[in-house]
Structure formats: C-alpha cells, structure tokens
Write a structure and sequence with these properties.
The chain contains 2 helices and no strands. It has 58 residues and is mostly helical. α1 packs antiparallel against α2 (38-54).
Length: 58
C-alpha cells in the first residue's frame, strides 16, 4: 500500500468516527444531546458498510 492509501483510510475513518461519536453521545448522554435520528444512524451505517466493502481499494 502506498502512503496515499493510508491517508485515504485515515481520512475516511476519522470522518466516520466523528459521525458515530455524535450518535453515541446523544444515545449515552441524552440529557446533554438529542436522541439519535433514524436518518443520521442510517447515513453512518452506510458509510461504515461502504468503508468495509472498499477497504482493499484504499
């Protein structure tokens, strides 16, 4: 793998981590955040699924 591939993996994982963190924070700390919206959970799930399916391309 080239350095560019590692950078793409890191960038994608960082993006997905941020999206998932927002959902988990709202779930685990509902007093300080809104409950997760179904559409937001679906978007993050799709990102994770696509990342998993494309990991070899990165």
């Amino acid at each position: 793998m080239s350095d560019a591939n590692y950078t793409a993996i890191k960038d994608n994982l960082t993006t997905y981590y941020g999206k998932a963190k927002n959902i988990l924070t709202a779930t685990l700390y509902p007093a300080s955040g809104e409950i997760p919206k179904v559409d937001a959970v679906k978007v993050v799930n799709n990102f994770i699924t696509n990342a998993n399916n494309n990991i070899e391309q990165w």
